[in-house]
Task: structure prediction
Amino acid sequence: MEALKKSILAGAIDPMYLLYGAESFLKEEAAEMIKRAIFPSEADAADNTQIFYGPDLTLGMLLSKASEYPMFTPKQLIIVRQFDKIKKPATKEQQKQYDEKLSQYIARPAEFTVLILDTDPVDKKDIEKSPFNLLKKYRHEFPIIKAPDLFAYNRAKSLGWEFDADALKAFSAYIQPSAREICHEIEKIILYASSRTNEKKQITAPDVYDCVGISRTYNIFELEKALADRNLRLCSGMSLLIMDQEGQKEGLGNIIRYLTIFYLRLWKLSLPEVRQLPQVEIAKILGMYGKQEYFVKNYLGYTRSFSLQNAEHAIIALQEADAALKGLRPYPDEKYLLLQLMQKLLG
Result:
């Protein structure tokens, strides 16, 4: 995404883009950047942008539209949503003809047209088949975000702001790992933080607590400490309060997601050769970025309370709870599922 942004901002606009993957917000953002780079005003963009949907088009129809001259303007933008669902030809012979036409168009694309082909996630096998294999030069993938804390940190930085260590930890624990939610919440927090004197443009933990609606007393930081103390009663009570703050199902989902990361980090730290590495290297192995490195010492301290076997049992228990929450296993209600999980984690 960063390389794509740089090329667009530098004015290096390709004749076509295949944007594929699960992160629809980032694809929409990329398409909007391309639109702004092509057209001098919103009015020009509105007049010269056409949006189509894959199920309504054949490849032949699309290439025909791309070859038509725009009206009253040197450029036109054609966006195709659900390009992966474009109508399939009736015969292999027609498919061959379409592939030849597409290859010819790619070799000599219309100078006046920019094509954006927006595609949902595509299997690795299918991405190497027609028509995607012909568009290899123009493919840009937007997969599910695997490191939401790093994404959030970089996003804030691109806006001229920086999370402090506690703030990033709190934010990552309570925000769903989707680009749309992360970006919207960061914008909200920056607006809030801008209302106070903040010369360094620093996002603090209280900013996150206030904007996201997290208790300053009962939060994921305190839950970690209670787990390390093996205090079942406190862990259960605190988790129930966190659930009440966020809603039963969503709150439990956030707890499961965060504790899975917590125990996976402890599992990695159970290896003596990892614990002996410099703190910066440990942070990379644990997937902790930026100022999150500060918390490596906390995790090293937690290893005294959790053995390798504890971590493995906890990960299995969390996987079972997650499966239940997703409807793959029956359970009476969220509170029962949470209390059962806490017993398994500290049993």
The first helix runs from residue 2 to 9. The longest strand covers residues 113-119. Residues 2-141 form a domain with the Rossmann fold fold (CATH 3.40.50.300).
